[in-house]
Prior knowledge:
The protein is mostly helical and 422 residues long. It contains 15 helices and no strands.
Amino acid sequence: MGKPQAVAKQSPFSWPVGRWALFYGDRVLPWVIALVPPMAFAVPRALAALLPLAGILALPILLRRDVPRWFAGLILIGGRDLTLLIAVGLGSLWALVSCLWSLSPLGALGLWGRLAGLGLSGLLLLAAIDRLDPNRRRRLGTALIVGLVVGIVVGHGIWLYLRMPDLRDVLPLPYRFLYELNRGEAVMTALLWPAAYLLWRRGQWGLMALILAGAFHLLVRLDSATVRLSALAALGALMAAAALPRIVPSLLAGIAATAALLLPWIFAQVLDAGQIIQQFPQLVPSAQHRLYIWQFAVERIGEHPWLGWGLDASRAVPGGTLRPPVGFDYMPLHPHNSLLQVRLELGLVGAAVSAVLIGRGLVLAGRQPDRARVAIHVAMLGTYLMVGLSGYGVWQSWWIAAGWLIWAVGQTVLTPESDGKS
């Protein structure tokens, strides 16, 4: 009798063979990707549950029996950039330390725990996606397209519902104001770039035109000027990066990193809310209120410039509940500017970590293999960052989860394996 043939040992960075691995790759991941756009419109806060669910369900795939125990921790960061990981680790540690002097230490610890859980879930999801084979990547690309179509339909449905008061008496739904769709609009815009790229690569021009038309209609009809401006800025960045793929991402990285460090100082030199409103009285009340919020945040940053006020302290800074000439509070829970909030709460150390994270992300976007992927990466990252400059609190769980999920979509779709028809 001949010797039995040895079974080839599978690489820990390949998709494993097993019943759960097949189910997760063929069913769970496509559903996760497809649910992101409609969920962002209908129940955006549920994104903060979708991400941990996807991460936890990936654990059996990552922590396999054939993988050495010492490798169990390292496997979670396979394929990630070391600079980004070090920056995330330092930022997380500093945020935890800042809870010691936070104005609401227990709330800050709770927030840190939620952020840490979302970060770990995001790493788990990305580690699973890194191991996908080409066929599954193509399926996830199709899932993104289907999900975006459904999301645009859901967004239009809620928009029509809000425009028909009589229908609300017959069919009571938990939607009352147009601004409730702003979160879905932001997520849709960030995901629109990779979906359009994928449809272009697959030659599905009609479907691409239909999706773009539906998304454009929502951008025009909905209530968020922030998202519209972010979409325009991202489009400009996309065109510039496509023309100069090796120069523009690095240039944007330098600008963004500088803004993360110096934005409070810049605002302190040029931002006088009352004078600006007097010169531009046509500014809508929400924009006027933003100016007072930012001016107030800059003043509080000047009181604790190095260490900040501590994680989650924005809602409790002195004077925040006083009323400006326009709007309700000087500090309505957060500064409505991600860079100002990081500097206000985490000081110069937190701002430096943000500068590294944002700058490195844009530099990595410039290292994609072709100009199209460079441009799409820049547009995705630009949309998310620009919305954060005038939109949501930087620590909101749904917004952090959306960022990880958008990153996961980029890692899935923007690869040569995803270009073909599924």
